[in-house]
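If I may wish for something, please sit down with the protein I am sending here and say whether tokens and residues agree:
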Amino acid sequence: MEKNTKRTKEKKSKKKIWLWIVGGLLTIFLIFIGTAYYTIQKTMNKINTPLIETTDESKEQKIVTKKDPFSVLMLGVDERKDDSGRSDTMIVITVNPEKQTMKMLSIPRDTRTEIIGHNSVDKINHAYAFGGVPMAVDTVEHFLDIPIDYYVFVNMDGFLQIIDTIGGVTIDNDMDLTFDSYHYPKGEITLDGDNALIFSRIRYEDPRGDFGRQIRQRQIIEAVLKKASSKSSILLKASDMLDVVGDNVRMNFTMKDLIQLQSIYKNMDGNLEQLSFKEGDGKRIDNIWYFIPKETELEKIKSELKAHLQ
């Protein structure tokens, strides 16, 4: 009888211990989730900047769905002290969820075009300097004759912090390049933030000029997206990544949009087609060098992007 009582007490004692352990782990998990949600929400409140005022009834903010195509303008801005900066990187991405495809177009920074809202013809990357993100979006919309639904602004100097936070990126370099003390051999190379920033800016040392630079920028962006989306990076670096993103990124995607984007992107991995300008010419006008797109190629790109967004 005493043995049975003792066993019953031992079972109850073990049950209490397991309840305490499970309860403790559940409490820690809930605190982590609560803290993560608070941190994510705080970061989203910081980076979410609508492109248009809510009082503007002429155009409504689009919502990401699994059906409707949409477009994104990515602006990599080189911000300097006492200067509004230039959008040295301008990439348009169109997404068609139903077809599960994406198209990416890099616009050469020196492209000569009309700057919408400034009453001038200038290099397309000057649009941001003249009127910030809204003028850059309006100018790209006019240049490509497509609507731009979303934008993502990235401070390029801060971008290196994101790369360092996720432990660097690995890319396949298609050309041996040297810039000052920086050397990038042909083949697979791993870059930290500082090396990635220099690698993405090289122009004159590459015989392809700005076109070669665009290729490298796309490689880095794709490598960052791939590594940052891995579960190990999210779990181990989430807090640090949110801090860096909050300081260096602005966008008009909402939290709900980003959750939907993650679901869409999972089905599109690898279905990214890269477009580029290959047939334009360089020309000096008033002693300023411009890239002049070939009209037939520009019209072809416009048609392709329009069809993808329908």
